[in-house]
Amino acid sequence: MTRNRTVVAALLMGTSALLTPAAANAKARHSAPTAREAQLEARIQKLEAALLQLRTDLGTAHDAQASAQAQVQAQAAQVGAVQAVATAAAQTAQTAATHAEATATKLAALEARPAPEGMRVGATTIRIGGYLKLEAANSHFSNGTVATNTLGRDFYVPQAIPVGGSASRVQDFSAKQTRLWLNLETNVGSHTLKGYVETDFQTSAGTQGSQRTTNGYNLALRRAYVQLDRWTFGQDWTTFQYVAALPESTDYVGATEGSVFVRQPLIRYSAPLGKGLTLHLAAENPEAGTVTAGSAALVENGTDRLPDFAARLVYANPHGELSLAALGRQVRVQNQAVAATAGGYGVSGAGKLFLKADKSIDLRFMATYGQNIGRYVGLNFTPDAVYLPATNSLADTRVFAGFAALRVGLTPTVRANLIGSFQKSEFDSALSAANIASLNKQAWSGAVNLFYSPVKPVDLGIEFRHGERELESGLSGKLDRIEFAAKYSF
Q1: Can you give the pLDDT at residue 170?
Q2: pLDDT score for 221
Q3: Is 420 helix (H, G, I), strand (E, B) or coil?
Q4: How far apart are CA 6 and CA 60, in angstroms?
Q5: Among 144, 187, 267, 397, which residue has the fewest nearby CB atoms (within 10 Å)?
């Protein structure tokens, strides 16, 4: 429409331009207009009026077009603004989604990470742990009685099996084996400094509470050491012992007569050799547990002048662990101004082999042989040496001991253990039968147990054990014990 009006206006303007000069010339030639000229003049006036109207309409059309273009531009600007807002919103949503995804990933990583343990005191992390344990044992002794509040009533001690008496049966409950430990760790530059303290109430010396009233027992030190990188200083399991091989049992030890079992002060250096191999070298506290010929009473002499030296090589891989240990020592007895000494040595092999890939079944074992090392094996079942006052000398003793234990996981929460253990003593041929008649010749035991863990920190176990002890004189005794244990570890 606007284009048509523009064309018409152009035509009229062109016509007006042509007619106006002609009319002017005619007027100049004739002073009085004719009728024809009057008509032409009237037509020209009409054309001029129409032209003026067309010009007015054209201006109005231009204004309308400009307004429409302004509206279109405004609408376009609004659409652009909306699009910009939409784009910004989309970008914000994308950023939020990315942030949410990253947050979810971090949260999942935090949830998968083990919860931090312990508390911080300065630069040191402190962790507290241990377990609470109740043990209830019903014991039948075939040849005698065992005094109340003694170790032979609390757990299996083969040398405490009575011989040469009448049968007896006793019932005992105890929480003495409850254990508490404190673990410390501090980073000192590129070094790691660790400390460890462990206690229980089982072997404390001194006055104990009465079972009739309070059943109070003294706190006893088990282990207390500091580790700086590869060095250990303090009281720990002897380097001659491989603790990982000990069987699972309701008892305090489990396979007593066949086990190397000593905790004592030491200085130890541990060196990783690569490919699962670690070498441990130690100088440890010496002590001689000897007897005098004709007596079975053990004497702690306290006159040693050299430390006991121990070494252990450990190999570990996904299929199990193996240990080979050696011990060298001097046994010394001081009798007034004269001292008697004897050398001692021992070797011990132990391990734990996983019989299934998920480690639900394993075989644990230990075998030990040595001369004058009695206090290291079976809680000193065999003396370190026999002192002969007549010659002021020490007669050698030899020990061979071992155990094997099969652990079978029946379900994720139920497992069973089968344990067999023994020890045999041999004495120097220079000793007469009368010199050693009251000493232990051998002992063995077998046990089977069943453990149930309704939740991870709780273990409920029941165990049956049969043990026998024989003296060099031929006297013997037997023990049959049914034991229940409930333990909460934390």
Answers
A1: 97
A2: 96
A3: strand
A4: 12
A5: 187
